[in-house]
């Protein structure tokens, strides 16, 4: 009887310790906002408007990578990350999950990662201006993500293709992007918030070169972002 009680207590306390450790990791979660257009929302494995359901090994789910769903509840992150966000198109694999898993691989003690998907396919930079619904939605979701604790570590931004159609849009992209980033940092009260920009390299078409965000780099938006002991060197070739 005594032995049973002892076993029970042992199991009970180890469970309790585990769940309080999980709770504290949850409270201290590292939040990353995912924003932009279809490249971020994820179209990997989508053929004829249907996702093939294949999840590459680097995009697998695990209990320490969470996702803020459309109802602003945290749940275990699972591909496609934007399925309930970019709802008018078929979503597939995007960069968010692979990013989270590689951060955990580089820094295993980082604890819980919370991803906040906000990307919508086909959108241009004007639609992300302060005051527009995409911008407001991003800010609201970022704030909702903080309610139960955690720190926003960075915004991952993958957008620009929609602004390559006209020369004028491409030329004003740098300034629009800079304003977007500065407004976002102000509205999230995080003046040094790292913004990690993903863009295609090696494409030599004129319009795409025109939106190459050199302007953003010049204002020091992203270069050597330093995140909680992680040193990420983001350069032209390896972003
Ligand atoms: C951006 O997209 C919106 C919605 O499709 C459109 O109304 C607007 O004209 C576009 N703006 C630019 C500058 O292309």
TrEMBL record:
Keywords: Hydrolase, Signal. Residues 29-198 form the Sialate O-acetylesterase domain. This is Sialate O-acetylesterase domain-containing protein. Residues 1-19 form the signal peptide. GO terms for molecular function: hydrolase activity. InterPro entries: Carb_Esterase_6, SASA, SGNH_hydro_sf. It comes from the Eukaryota. Pfam families: SASA.
